[in-house]
């Protein structure tokens, strides 16, 4: 069964992951800010508790 031979596929998978992790991912992360900080204070909402009829 040639599908169980890991020789070419393991090498291709490792090269692909290394290319993604070392070359492509840092370039993509430099364009997209994951969570920019904001100076706004978080808004708090004034909520009233629900009055249950059986209590």
From TrEMBL:
Q: How does the protein associate with the membrane?
A: Single-pass membrane protein
A molecular function annotated in GO for this UniProt entry is: proton transmembrane transporter activity
Q: Which GO terms describe its cellular component?
A: mitochondrial membrane; proton-transporting ATP synthase complex
| Chief subcellular location | mitochondrion
InterPro entries on file:
ATP8_metazoa, ATPase_protein_8
The subcellular localization recorded is: Mitochondrion membrane
What does the UniProt keyword field contain?
ATP synthesis, CF(0), Hydrogen ion transport, Ion transport, Membrane, Mitochondrion, Transmembrane, Transmembrane helix, Transport
- Protein name in the entry: ATP synthase complex subunit 8
Protein's organism: Pterorhinus perspicillatus
